[in-house]
Amino acid sequence: MDIDPARRNKKPRLLLETEREKLDEFIDSIHYSARYNDDQFEYRHVQLPKNMLKKIPTDYFDSSKGTLKLLWEEEWRALGITQSLGWEHYEVHEPEPHILLFKSVICKLLPWMYH
C-alpha cells in the first residue's frame, strides 16, 4: 500500500491566505472516525463537509478521477485537518470523494525494550 507519487503534487502546494480563509467556516464540521488497525498500520478516515470541496483550489484535485489528490501533510493541515504527527493521507474514498483515508505506522516496542 505504497503511496503513488503520481497521485500527489510534486511538492506541497500551500494555500494562499485568501484560499485558507474560504475554508475556515468548515473546520468545525470536519468529522474524524474512530481509529482502527491491522498488524502494521493504524487507520482513520476524515470526512470533510461536502460543500468544503467546492472551496478547495482546483490544483488540489486529480482531474482524471474527480477527487482530491493524495495530500502532503502540509496540504491537509492547511485545509484544517488536525491530527497527531505520523499520519499519512493514502487514499480518497472515490464513491464519496469528501472522505479521506489516513494511515499511521504502529510503533511496537520490541521485547528487549521492556527491560
UniProtKB/TrEMBL annotation:
An annotated Gene Ontology molecular function: cyclin-dependent protein serine/threonine kinase regulator activity
Annotated GO biological process: cell division
InterPro entries named among the record's database cross-references: Cyclin-dep_kinase_reg-sub, Cyclin-dep_kinase_reg-sub_sf
GO cellular component: cyclin-dependent protein kinase holoenzyme complex
Pfam families: CKS (PF01111)
Keyword terms of this UniProt record: Cell cycle, Cell division
SUPFAM superfamilies according to UniProt: Cell cycle regulatory proteins
Entry similarity comment: Belongs to the CKS family.
Function summary: Binds to the catalytic subunit of the cyclin dependent kinases and is essential for their biological function.
Name under which the protein is recorded: Cyclin-dependent kinases regulatory subunit
